[in-house]
Specification:
Domain PAS: 243-314
Transmembrane segments: 12-32, 53-73, 79-103, 110-132, 144-162, 169-191, 211-232
Domain MHYT: 9-194
Strand content: 5-15%
Shape: elongated
Number of strands: 8
Number of helices: 13
Distance between the termini: 106 Å
Radius of gyration: 29 Å
Pfam family, one: PAS_9
Number of domains: 2
Order of helices and strands: EHHHHEHHEHHEEHHHHEEEH
Helix content: 55-70%
Keywords: Membrane, Transmembrane, Transmembrane helix
Length: 369
């Protein structure tokens, strides 16, 4: 038996493995951005796509990185074990994402989901290492445990970033890829491998494909898979932009004033009719709250607090109902208004839309008659 050499790695295959996992991390985070904004059925689809994309990329990186190692002399793998390791990574990642996005318990979901996902990735790593035929592997405890801890930490970070919409996808993907690559080589360094003489190995496994050819085939298949998912995500982006542009056009052509505000009352969007009706510019409107338009003289804040409490508890007597009340322009002049407030979810946050109709002319007509 010969002790496997652990130097003279193939730099080209190492770089190829890193590029694969970088592309997988980037694509997975891009797909994860769709989860919060989708319907429940589509959320499951995006979770499955994001988790599968990441786990397939990690598995491919791991397999190519194994080919970059100088051992054993003739690389021959047990196919069933390899695909079992891939299945473990995919299933574990999907479960981790499901726990993160659907679990209802109080314990931090990204910790539990990330731990399960990290253990599955570690299991994939060491199981696929055992797929090398005729190789005996003995692991050193410290790097063995360290690689598992890194896998768990990276998984926790990935799940957290999958719900954090403000992160920069490219830089986040780069950090995740570096950590996953480091996890792989720490895991490899934990193993002391011995294998038979080349002549014995070649006799039992005579078919030997060049490592570069095999790596390129795996990389090509993975890139096709990732490119399909990324292309689909970009098509969805384009469709959403078109829908957003259409909705923006409908808002701007509406005769009624429409304002979108968050749970604290801050205006985050308005249409042209709102700016014209209240006498503010759009820029000025986005620095105000709904309470500035409805209760500008509410010194003690009681009226604003009452409305805020109704919004917080999603009071059915308010939401979706037409309510007549006074509204105020920029010059603090009062006018009668019909206000309808509706609530909706946007990127996991509670938002509200107020449709405000000026009743001044209507009131005058009634008085005249």
């Amino acid at each position: 038996m010969h002790l496997a050499e652990t130097h003279r790695y193939s730099l080209y295959l190492i770089l190829l493995a890193f590029v694969i996992v970088l592309l997988a991390s980037y694509t997975s985070l891009k797909l994860a951005r769709r989860i919060a904004d989708s319907s429940p059925w589509h959320q499951k689809l995006w979770i499955t796509s994001s988790a599968t994309t990441l786990s397939v990329g990690i598995w491919s990186m791991h397999f190519i990185a194994i080919l970059a190692c100088p051992y054993p002399a003739v690389k021959s793998f047990d196919i069933a074990t390899l695909f079992t390791s891939l299945a473990i990574a995919v299933i574990g990642s999907i479960i981790g994402f499901i726990v993160m996005h659907f679990a209802t318990f109080e314990f931090p979901k990204f910790l539990l989901g990330g731990t399960f996902m990290g253990l599955s990735i570690s299991g994939m790593h060491f199981l696929s290492m055992s797929a090398l035929n005729q190789a005996e592997i003995h692991y050193s405890p410290i790097p063995f445990i360290l690689s598992i801890l890194i896998a768990i930490l990276v998984s926790i970070t990935t799940l957290y970033l999958s719900t954090y919409t403000k992160q920069k996808v490219l830089s986040s993907g780069f950090v995740i890829s570096l950590a996953l690559t480091g996890m792989h080589y720490i895991g490899v360094s934990a193993g002391k491998m011995t294998y038979p003489d080349r002549s014995m190995l070649a006799e039992h496994y005579p078919v030997d494909m060049d490592a570069y050819v095999l790596a390129l085939l795996i990389a090509f298949g993975t890139i096709i898979f990732l490119s399909f998912n990324l292309f689909y995500s970009m098509k969805i982006d384009q469709k959403l932009l078109e829908q957003f542009a259409l909705k923006a056009s409908l808002l701007d052509t509406s005769m009624d004033s429409i304002m979108v505000f968050n749970s604290r009352g801050w205006i985050i969007e308005c249409n042209s009719a709102a700016s014209a009706a209240f006498g503010y510019t759009r820029k000025q409107t986005l620095t105000l709250t709904m309470f500035d338009f409805l209760f500008p003289f509410d010194r003690n804040g009681e009226a604003a607090a009452a409305l805020f409490q109704q919004l917080s508890r999603q009071d059915a007597a308010l939401l979706g109902k037409r309510v007549e009340m006074a509204a105020y322009r920029a010059d603090r002049s009062e006018f009668p208004a019909e206000i309808t407030i509706t609530g909706f979810q946007f990127k996991g946050k509670r938002m509200f839309a107020a449709t405000i109709r000026d009743l001044t002319n209507q009131k005058r007509s009634v008085s005249a008659s």
